Amino acid sequence: MWAVCKKELRQFFSSLTGYIAIIVFLLANGLVLFVFNDNIFDFGYATLDRFFQLAPWILLLLIPAITMRSFADEFRGGTFELLQTRPLTRWQIVSGKYLGSLIVVLIALLPTIVYFFSIQQLSSNEGIDTGATIGSYIGLFFLAAVFTAIGICTSSFTSNAVVAFIISLIACALLYYGFNAISRLPGLEGGADYYIEMAGIDFHYSSISRGVIDTRDVVYFLSVIFLFLTITHRNLLKR
User: Fold this and answer.
1) Dihedral pair phi/psi, residue 198, rounded to 5°
2) Which of these, 73, 78, 108, 126, could form a disulfide with 22 (CB 3.0-4.6 Å)?
3) Residues near 237 by Cβ (< 8 Å), separated by ≥ 6?
């Protein structure tokens, strides 16, 4: 598994594409937080809420770009057959690919901790709410983990990386906000709207971002990750 993980990391950082994706992610967040209108300086108090509201939508573009080549390039280049000759189980291959992509996403998220220390130093009052910020980062980690699992899964269905990117982007967007949008349809209010919204990722991400780690939210994220990795595993068995 670790051999596949290291191969995935080398493949991503062997070209400028990987570095550019991470730089664009950090640049977009930095500009929206500190430069554009309605930035964090306009709030009048120390908070990173703007970042945690924006980050999921940028991750919708970043993570599919990271995962789109995971299996698609293996199928297109004919190297998946060589990978199968290694003493690795299907689960080890899937886990290695998943872990490698997730580490890349975490590398992209790690520099954003600078935002926390910057706002803390610039604050003239009590400073930023550390507990809520830690909870939000945990929620962002689970969100990134789910998006990565979806991206790995979609990449296992095609040999075209661009197609994998588009399908992954659509799937992540639908699972993140689709259920929330459906729950707001007329006729669902006061009834099934809560349960429909609860099936979406946004509901559980927002819950953890409040700073309270609920077991139900953790179980939800782990279940979705396991579901998509299982689909990936079964899809590889068919090949």
Assistant:
1) -65, -20
2) 108
3) 90
